[in-house]
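User: When convenient, might I ask for sequence and structure tokens for a protein?

AI:
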Amino acid sequence: MIIQVFYLGKNVDGIQMQLVSLSGYNVRYRAYVGGRWLPWITGNSDYAGIFGQPIEAIQAEIVSGNSGGGDMSQSKILKYNSSLSPEQQKLGHWCGPAALNAVDCFYYNLSGKNTDKTQNDMAILLATTTQTSFGSCWQIALNGNIPGNLYSLYRAENYTSSAWISKVKERIMRNIDMGYPVIADTLQNASRGFLTENYNQGRDIYHYITVIGYMIKSDGSCYFRYMDSYSKNHGVYTVPLYTLANITYGNDLGIVCY
């Protein structure tokens, strides 16, 4: 019985670590090489050596088993092309347009670029000037580019801190299960916390990210995978629920999701 499916990109070392950490599970996986998916296999194979070709993507699937410790008991990560996403923001104040550009993971296609939308296009949609406001332009832009017309602003100021933690977890997991990314507006500093230490710069930093996945361990702890466009933190990372909830909590902060 298939109990879990998650998708990972091009970083083979990271993929091997994820698979090895799933002790107690039977896992099968396959690589996308040379324009096609290879057959499903089991065991810890070195995908980097298959046919001597670079790997474009890897799909892994837990088919049976039981975890005896702190391994992932539930997870889902939206597919994306790691050679194209996320884009680094083109201007220092364009984290909003770059985060919106990263929703191209919804249109993921191994045969080409995920979307024809550029950061310039997104900056116009978001009315970005020296910053991108957390306002109605986000709903208009997302609903104009992703089917359903269901994206809304969830303003953290409308919730207590504990209720916000629950709301962030519930909304992100629901969106990812449906296949839709989530935009998060963050304020990071020493008292609130940081996505990573790359943001520990002795000042307040406002920054948008795109959440593309979640991971729940058997001990109940929750983590999110996100795309980051910031030059000093460019890539795909993991952040704990409580950190993300804390840095998105406050006036004019929140998430954009279904």
Remarks:
- The first strand starts at residue 4 and ends at 8.
- Residues 161-178 form the longest helix (18 residues).
